[in-house]
Amino acid sequence: MLVAYLDESEDRRRQRYYFGALVLDGESATRTVEAMEAIARDAAERFPVPPEIELHGYDLMNGAGAWECLAGKIRARLGIFKESLQAVTSQRGEFLVREVDVHAVEEIPDAAEATPHEICLVHVLQTLDRIAEERGEYILVIADEHHLAGNLREQLRQWRAEGTPGHYKRTYLSRVVDTIHFTPSKESRLLQAADLLLYFHQRYEGRTLGRDQREMKFLELMKVEVSRIEHPDSGGWPPKCTKPPADRRGGQGGSEA
């Protein structure tokens, strides 16, 4: 059986909604957890942070939250971020990113009743269902705690009974096991891994926005490694938002910048 770890994010400035899914088999999941635990323990030995500290993308990249003690140490922060990404990319996993152009959706009459969150979730679940089918497997979906967890489970039941909405390829998600299971990201190294990958994806898209030169070099270097596990069906909807021009101006959204 495969397991998909979901993370979501919104970029308010660029008007994008994202879902990222890290897909792993049992062995790869176990090895990734072991590697990330070792990274956290090593950080606790070198800096005043606890060994159970969450490897959270935004906080680690920006020296915020539990990583505030590294606010003035960009080399240390990037080093831990790099090690964490490599812990994931060294395994036999895949990372899927689906994004929705919020503004473009508002201009499409057929999509007017659906939220960007719903559209993006449908797209990622459909793709996960197809990944599992192509491998002759079933897939369990785990996501970070969400205030709409009950509603999302109900939506999944509805999509199984009636098929997914018609904005994208209709499917009955027959390869998705049980329901969407929600758990706190602080208790799951693999949800943290999904968060790191999705945050890296957003940060890379906004790399022209006056970043520190050390960070720019880091983003370009790590993109090569992260690309190795990016699923080919990653992309955006409507299709024109899949690959924004390299010199596009805009920001990483809201508090995710």
Average pLDDT for all residues: 89
Spans of at least 5 consecutive residues whose pLDDT stays below 50 are 242-257
- The SSE order reads EEHHHEHHEHEHHE
Outline = globular
Helix share bin: 40-55%
Q: Quick one: how many beta strands?
A: 6
Largest sheet: 6 strands, mixed
What is the C-alpha radius of gyration, as a whole number of Å? 18 Å
Structural class: alpha/beta
Euclidean distance between termini CA atoms: 35 Å
Largest sheet, order of strands side by side?
5-4-1-2-3-6
Tell me the number of helical segments per DSSP (H or I, 4 or more residues long): 8
Bin the strand percentage. 15-25%
Set down the secondary structure blueprint.
Layout: E1 2-11, E2 16-24, H1 26-46, H2 57-62, H3 74-89, E3 94-101, H4 102-106, H5 116-135, E4 139-144, H6 149-162, E5 176-183, H7 189-205, H8 213-227, E6 235-237
